[in-house]
Amino acid sequence: MEKIKTGIASFGMSGLVFHAPLLHANPQFELHSIVERSPKGSKDIYPDVNIVASFDALLADPDIELVIVNTPDTTHFEFCRMALDAGKHVVVEKPFTVHSHEAETLMSLAEERQLTLSVFQNRRWDSDYLTVKKVVQNKMLGRLVSFESHFDRYRNFLKPDTWKEESLTGAEILYNLGAHMVDQAYDLFGMPQSVFAEIGIQRSGGKADDYYNLNLKYENLSVNLKASYLVREEGPRYALHGTLGSFLKWGMDRQEDDLKAGKSPSNPDWGIEPQKIWGKLNTEINDLHFTGRLASLPGNYNAYYDNLAAVIRGEVDLIVHPKQSLDVLRIIEAAIKSDKEGIRVSF
């Protein structure tokens, strides 16, 4: 198969840490061009890459088939629209767009142009999430009644000179970390019946919200999604409870830290969690009580790009479909409405 020549719209954190290393390590893609309005050092890491000074120049290159839109959230709609109009397949960083009606417009445009459009929901391939998904799908806890997920950090200061500390959308952490967590809940359980949310600023002097607590209501199941920048002592990343038992999982998937450290996704031990952070399972299996550690499944972010390559070549269906990401946006918008009005929002 001919390699898919790919251009990246920015060499900030997501370009440097996620997209460029994953594309470079995947034999189905060619990392062709990167937009750098000022030098960011991509040429030092990838000597064969083309450096272009603008997004327009990226789109003007007829060799590029796929464009990665990894620019600030508020630019996603316009940049995706421009890329689709230029006849390019598009991967956009989460959130899909800021408003769901913008996402609908992009979906229609992609369908009209017969182009692939997908949101980079790489955390569907976190080792901890893949393990949680197996627990849920195999009904290891009986009928699930409670699902809680945390994405906590300890950063009691404000980062200088970053758009992520500015109030651009009115729900920064929800569009950032929340887009991943809501997507995981949606992937597991589908669209909720209703949502109730608390969103706020906890750090002194903050302009962008840095905390949320979402409750998604399903039939006979309560899903709680929480994130904060002021959690110094780590609790469980996931806590699942059902009629037969519980599953608790500490620790974070290692792929982001390994990418930051310059490790290659082609390493044979890629995505494998250390045994010390395997989750604890306490349940009944075939009427026998079991308690112990459950080995984590290996994480694999490049599974996203493997699927994307096969989709672009017309071989398989898209795993992260834009319709799913549109529903995730609708849940986020309902959460914002819930917080502002102090009400539970039904779908």
UniProtKB/TrEMBL annotation:
<feature type="domain" description="Gfo/Idh/MocA-like oxidoreductase N-terminal">
    <location>
        <begin position="5"/>
        <end position="119"/>
    </location>
</feature>
<dbReference type="InterPro" id="IPR051317">
    <property type="entry name" value="Gfo/Idh/MocA_oxidoreduct"/>
</dbReference>
<keyword id="KW-0560">Oxidoreductase</keyword>
<dbReference type="InterPro" id="IPR004104">
    <property type="entry name" value="Gfo/Idh/MocA-like_OxRdtase_C"/>
</dbReference>
<dbReference type="InterPro" id="IPR036291">
    <property type="entry name" value="NAD(P)-bd_dom_sf"/>
</dbReference>
<dbReference type="InterPro" id="IPR000683">
    <property type="entry name" value="Gfo/Idh/MocA-like_OxRdtase_N"/>
</dbReference>
<comment type="similarity">
    <text>Belongs to the Gfo/Idh/MocA family.</text>
</comment>
<dbReference type="Pfam" id="PF01408">
    <property type="entry name" value="GFO_IDH_MocA"/>
</dbReference>
<dbReference type="Pfam" id="PF02894">
    <property type="entry name" value="GFO_IDH_MocA_C"/>
</dbReference>
<protein>
    <submittedName>
        <fullName>Gfo/Idh/MocA family oxidoreductase</fullName>
    </submittedName>
</protein>
<feature type="domain" description="Gfo/Idh/MocA-like oxidoreductase C-terminal">
    <location>
        <begin position="133"/>
        <end position="345"/>
    </location>
</feature>
